[in-house]
UniProtKB/TrEMBL annotation:
Biological pathway: Cell wall biogenesis; peptidoglycan biosynthesis
SUPFAM superfamilies per UniProt: Glutathione synthetase ATP-binding domain-like, PreATP-grasp domain
Location in or out of the cell: Cytoplasm
Domain of life: Bacteria
Functional note: Cell wall formation.
Chief location of this protein within or outside the cell: cytoplasm
Annotated protein name in UniProt: D-alanine--D-alanine ligase
């Protein structure tokens, strides 16, 4: 089976996507799959790499070397890449952020009629927009933090909204990830600068109440038979002096660590898993999601954000969670591909014992 791994992209999470793709390409089982890298440069150029990469450990530099850009316009490169995508048996879009995780590439693959791993157009687009996500989850009775939406360059937060949200507060782009453009505001005098930073990533900005408590992630995996599995809870511990789990803490600070399973009461763990699967179903997800929670006061779950294609390096939360659950990185990819094949109406190859548990 030929699997095209698409990565890179025009978003601020380009580098994170390349790192995820390196993990995916390294761990795809060459006895099952012929792997082909397809890179989207930061300028939007699509570059098709060689067919049937041999097994081995690949880094970002290796993937970039295998997909040299020709500096042609994005539209021209896409016409050249379309045959490689259209003839693949499966596309795995290891993309994060706008122009990839937001339903745009998924829509292209739908038009081409190519099966792909993960969430569809609607769920990807909705989950990318934190404001829309919060509204849908709240309408379904799922707990979210209080927030206010700022749209347009002249929109400001009125005093009554400041009083409602309280301090500290968080300011974030509504349609970005990896904590890009996110600020913690301790005084309202800091708000304008925080909003300006967020608007560098998105014209739509959220101001949220700060939920003080533990930060816990739940990974949800869809199996080929439609069964949803919520992995053990992961607690994030930031140790590098950052005021929150920002971009540096996520990708650059060795002091950040994950505790899996988090030391939680069994009842809280079960409730977090139930809520995460509720998020999956409410947003109409497919394949996988990671739901990031806060535990207000250490016990009350609040949905913070939803990731429709979370980070996928070997050190990322999602693969680590299922590694602890007994599913290796390679077996995890097998499940995701088999589930995507079933969704496309095709028969997957039998899974290994660990993946098919």
């Amino acid at each position: 089976m030929e699997v095209a791994v698409v990565f890179g992209g025009r978003s601020g999470e380009h580098d994170v996507s390349c790192a995820s793709a390196a993990g995916v390409v390294t761990h795809l089982d060459r006895e099952r799959y012929a792997v082909r890298p397809v890179r989207i440069t930061a300028a939007g150029e699509w570059v098709v790499g060689p067919r049937a990469l041999p097994a081995g450990t690949y880094g970002v530099a290796d993937l970039v070397r295998l997909t040299p850009a020709a500096d042609v316009p994005a539209w021209q490169s896409l016409t050249e890449a379309a045959p490689a995508l259209g003839t693949a048996d499966m596309v795995l879009p290891a993309l994060h952020g706008p122009y990839g995780e937001d339903g745009t590439v998924q829509g292209l693959l739908e038009v081409l009629g190519v099966p792909y791993v993960g969430n569809g157009v609607a769920a990807s687009a909705v989950a990318m927009d934190k404001d829309v996500t919060k509204r849908l989850l709240a309408a379904s009775g799922l707990p979210v933090a209080a927030s206010a939406l700022l749209c347009g360059p002249d929109c400001a937060l009125p005093p009554d909204e400041q009083q409602r949200l309280g301090l500290p507060a968080f300011v974030k782009p509504a349609r970005a990830g990896s904590s890009l453009g996110v600020s913690r505001v301790e005084r309202w005098e800091e708000l304008d600068a925080a909003v300006a930073l967020a608007r560098e990533s998105d014209s739509k900005v959220l101001v949220e109440e700060a939920v003080l408590g533990r930060e816990v992630d739940i990974a949800v995996l869809e199996h080929p038979d439609g069964r949803l599995e919520a992995g053990p809870p992961l607690e994030i511990r930031v140790g590098g002096g950052q005021r929150f789990f920002d971009y540096e803490a996520k990708y650059q600070d060795a002091a950040t660590r994950f505790e899996i399973p988090a030391r939680l009461d069994e009842g809280i763990t079960a409730e977090l898993q139930r809520l995460a699967m509720g998020v999956f179903e409410t947003l109409g997800c497919a394949g996988l999601i990671r739901v990031d929670f806060f535990l207000r006061g250490g016990t009350e779950p609040v949905v913070n954000e939803v990731n429709t294609f979370p980070g996928f390096t070997a050190a990322s939360q999602y693969p680590q969670i299922f590694e602890v659950a007994g599913l290796s990185y390679g077996d995890l990819l097998d499940v995701l591909i088999a589930t995507a094949l079933v969704r496309a109406g095709r028969r997957p190859a039998p899974l290994a014992a660990g993946a098919a548990r």
